[in-house]
Amino acid sequence: MQAIMFAARCLGVSLAVFVLLYVILSLAVSRVWPLFSRMIANLSARRSAGVLFVFRMFPVLVAAGFTLAVTVPSFLLLEPRTSDEEVGAAPLLLGLFCLALVALGIYRAMLAQRKTSQALAEWLNGAHQIESPVPVPVFQTGAHAPSLTVAGVCTSRVLVSETTLSLLTDRELSTALRHEIAHVRSRDNLKKLIFRFTTFPGMAGLESAWSEASEMAADDAAVSSLSDALDLAAALIKLSRVAAIQPSAAFASALMPSSSASLRARVQRLFSWKSQTAAPSTSRYLLPTALASLFCLLAGYSSLLAGMHAATEWLVR
């Protein structure tokens, strides 16, 4: 019985600490991301998308890392196993709230996945696979499907409407397909699934900023010369004239943007394309920084565990 109570207290305290950190950090991120976005405005689109994704994941990563590395060890090492202390009301309520938040995230992810599967099945109705140089199956669809999109999280498929095939030249189509393959390589649809799972109010703006950066990053990956950039811009302009409103799905990355403002920004960016020079690599600083952070953590780890245990003792009461 004591072992069960000990495990229950450990679980309750761990969930309580996790959800407290997650909520506090998520509130902070949802408030400061516009300022953070302006700070990285000079980075390339690919790096901006990467940084915005990490910033979006920061609350859950830090909360999970701190809980596993500090909260759980402090409880296991410093909490007496023979104590008859019961789970307090605060950790119990916070733990239930944490489980409800996780359940909500799972529900949102499953619902979005089901809707995407239904939309994909509808788009593929009557479609047939066509030959393509890209390493992902490409299907020709009817007019009821998006003009050009890549759908799926685990298994990706590119859908090209018959209208798109009739409008675009071979060069324009090839460049547009490379744009979609860039989304596959970046696993952008998987990142959208993670966004649904790690739900929190106020993150829509940050996720939208990431989406725009990821589209521009895919544009950059698709073009290697001014000619390629003009081909992709021409494809966007042609398709915008015949497909003003595009059907969409949660886990699909379409070539056509959802707003005219995004379309104008991407086209203007492609028209003014310049060769991307490699920015100075910062990877050489990562290992020394990580080692220094690990050394500082280990140096004060015992004090951190003691302080965390004292905090959890207060929380349990």
Give an overview of the whole structure.
The chain is mainly α. The chain has one domain (2-276, 288-316). The chain is built from eleven helices and five strands; from the N terminus they run H-H-H-E-E-E-E-H-H-H-H-H-E-H-H-H. A five-stranded mixed beta sheet has the order 1-2-4-3-5, sandwiched between helices. The chain starts with a helix and ends with a helix. The relative contact order is 0.14. The model has no long low-confidence stretch (mean pLDDT 88).
Q: What structural class should be given to the helix and strand makeup?
A: mainly alpha
Radius of gyration of CA atoms, rounded to a whole number = 24 Å
Query: What gap, in angstroms, lies between the N and C termini?
Result: 20 Å
Strand content: 5-15%
Shape: elongated
Largest sheet: 5 strands, mixed
On the 0 to 100 scale, the average pLDDT is 88
Elements, N to C (H/E): HHHEEEEHHHHHEHHH
List the SSEs and their pairings.
Elements: H1 2-39, H2 45-78, H3 89-123, E1 128-130, E2 138-141, E3 148-151, E4 157-161, H4 162-167, H5 170-186, H6 188-197, H7 204-222, H8 226-242, E5 252-254, H9 260-271, H10 286-299, H11 301-316
Parallel strand pairs: 2-4
Antiparallel strand pairs: 1-2, 3-4, 3-5
Helix pairs in contact: 1-2, 1-3, 2-7, 2-11, 3-6, 5-7, 5-8, 8-9
What's this, in brief?
The chain is 69% helix and 6% strand.
Descriptive keywords:
elongated; five-stranded mixed β-sheet; 317 residues; 11 helices; mainly alpha; single chain
